[in-house]
From TrEMBL:
The keyword Chaperone does not apply. Keywords: DNA damage, Methyltransferase, Transferase. It comes from the Bacteria. This is Methylated-DNA--protein-cysteine methyltransferase. GO terms for biological process: DNA repair; methylation. Pfam families: DNA_binding_1. GO terms for molecular function: methylated-DNA-[protein]-cysteine S-methyltransferase activity. Its EC number is 2.1.1.63. Residues 10-89 form the Methylated-DNA-[protein]-cysteine S-methyltransferase DNA binding domain. CDD domains: ATase (cd06445).
Length: 110
């Protein structure tokens, strides 16, 4: 398998997992990588989300960092915060979310 095929497979797996996060829940970059079968690839999940085309219907905004915080800044922070608040997730002014209450724990993925 070529490197290009590996990347396509990674993206397909990651996007499949993210698509399953229900409204009103969040997941971390690390959780997504692990569920997609790529433990240790949390940074790559973030990079993949940063390259989504404008208007993508993937719920990218439901993915946050392992501290339970929005990792983005500026207008992107505001956009992600607004999307999460619209789904009823309380967020501190600094972008912190309670993982204990809002972390998605799927029974099974796939």
């Amino acid at each position: 398998m070529t490197h290009s095929d590996d990347k396509k497979q990674f993206l397909a797996q990651v996007f499949t997992v993210i698509h399953q996060i229900p409204a009103g829940k969040v997941s971390t970059y690390g959780d997504i990588a692990k569920m997609a079968g790529y433990p240790g690839y949390a940074r790559h999940v973030g990079k993949a989300l940063g390259q989504l085309p404008k208007g993508s219907t993937l719920p990218w905004f439901r993915v946050i960092n392992s501290k339970g915080e929005i990792s983005l800044s500026g207008p992107d922070f505001d956009r992600q915060r607004a999307e999460l608040v619209a789904e009823g997730i309380p967020i501190s002014s600094r972008g912190r979310i309670s993982l204990r209450h809002y972390r998605w724990q799927p029974d099974s993925v796939g």
